[in-house]
């Protein structure tokens, strides 16, 4: 009896030792394809985190809405069903943090330099802190790039949008943007967009070239306009309770891994979009239009009322702070450049 009891104790200790050595699992869910800036950076973070923690952390990446769609993923994070996300910045408004909608304002960032001055500085850090009362810790901003427009007709002038059903992210700013152009906005999850374009539920959309190409949207959109009218970026976020519960040295190591993954993401974002646009060109299914400076100025004038309409909703102080930071960069100009 004594030997049996001792054996049971030893078995229990051995099991506890195995359990203690089991890696901490971070489920990283996102809605885009693996071969996009976000998808590739998520895989880079996985590799870095597992290597730098020597296997103490295991990162499971779930792309293409495998676990959750746009409207579901933030709730899943808050409930602890997943630990990490990289949602587009527009998705924080439904949580009550409307300041992030400033990133949706058309033509607010005339260059990547102006953008990074905001996201990497005091303004960007302050916005991430606003997520903490929601049970979310913001770790980094990831870049996708400037958006282009697509439809089954050329979109060269604001008048060309009249009456078109255009897919948007769920954003009051993007809704207002399409309405000032005379279009009919329809908010759809990213995973629903390509089928909706194929089935004629919507007639056009806006997104980055990499997202359009990897979802094969160009196969059902006859025209693309390189307008660079708006920005699409993400915030890498974690469940705050989970993050705060990690051992301090492990959290510090993961922060270093995230910093390296973020630097990598910024180096590939524009290249990936440029390559995607060239792949669309080679596919031969889509005519690509580039706006002249005069056309770009006309688009800018047409969309300018959105700023006045949305400033109070977003927060006048935030919008004005962004404008001041952009002005410091000396980046304001007649058209948005791609760098």
UniProtKB/TrEMBL annotation:
Phosphoprotein as UniProt keyword: no
Keywords: Signal, Transport
Cellular component aspect of the GO annotation: outer membrane-bounded periplasmic space
UniProt superkingdom: Bacteria
Leader sequence segment: 1-20
Similarity field: Belongs to the bacterial solute-binding protein 7 family.
Record's protein name: C4-dicarboxylate-binding protein DctP
Species: Massilia yuzhufengensis
């Amino acid at each position: 009896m004594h030997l049996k009891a001792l054996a049971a104790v030893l078995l229990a200790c051995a099991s506890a030792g195995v359990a203690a050595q089991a890696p901490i699992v971070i489920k990283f869910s996102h809605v885009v394809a693996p071969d996009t800036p976000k998808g590739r950076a998520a895989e880079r973070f996985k590799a870095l985190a597992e290597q730098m923690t020597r296997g103490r952390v295991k990162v499971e990446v779930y792309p293409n809405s495998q676990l959750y769609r746009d409207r579901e993923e933030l709730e899943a994070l808050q409930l602890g069903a997943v630990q990490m996300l990289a949602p587009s910045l527009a998705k924080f408004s439904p949580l009550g943090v409307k300041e992030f909608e400033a990133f949706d304002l058309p033509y607010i960032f005339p260059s990547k330099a102006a953008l990074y001055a905001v996201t990497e500085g005091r303004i960007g850090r302050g916005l991430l802190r606003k997520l903490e009362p929601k049970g979310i810790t913001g770790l980094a901003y990831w870049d996708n790039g400037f958006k282009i427009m697509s439809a089954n007709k050329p979109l060269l002038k604001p008048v060309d949008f009249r009456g078109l059903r255009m897919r948007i992210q769920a954003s009051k700013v993007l809704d207002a943007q399409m309405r000032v152009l005379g279009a009919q906005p329809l908010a759809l999850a990213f995973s629903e967009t390509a089928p909706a374009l194929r089935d004629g539920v919507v007639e056009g959309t806006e997104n980055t070239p990499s997202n359009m190409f990897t979802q094969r949207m160009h196969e059902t959109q006859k025209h693309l306009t390189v307008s660079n009218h708006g920005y699409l970026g993400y915030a890498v976020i974690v469940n705050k309770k989970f993050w705060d519960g990690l051992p301090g040295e492990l959290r510090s190591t993961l922060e270093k891994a995230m910093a390296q993954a973020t630097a990598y993401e910024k180096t590939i974002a524009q290249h990936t979009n440029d390559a995607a646009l060239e792949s669309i060109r080679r596919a031969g299914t889509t005519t690509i239009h580039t706006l002249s400076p005069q056309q770009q100025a006309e688009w800018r004038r047409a969309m300018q009322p959105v700023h006045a309409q949305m400033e109070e909703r977003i927060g006048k102080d935030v919008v004005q702070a962004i404008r001041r930071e952009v002005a410091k960069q000396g980046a304001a100009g007649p058209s948005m450049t791609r760098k």
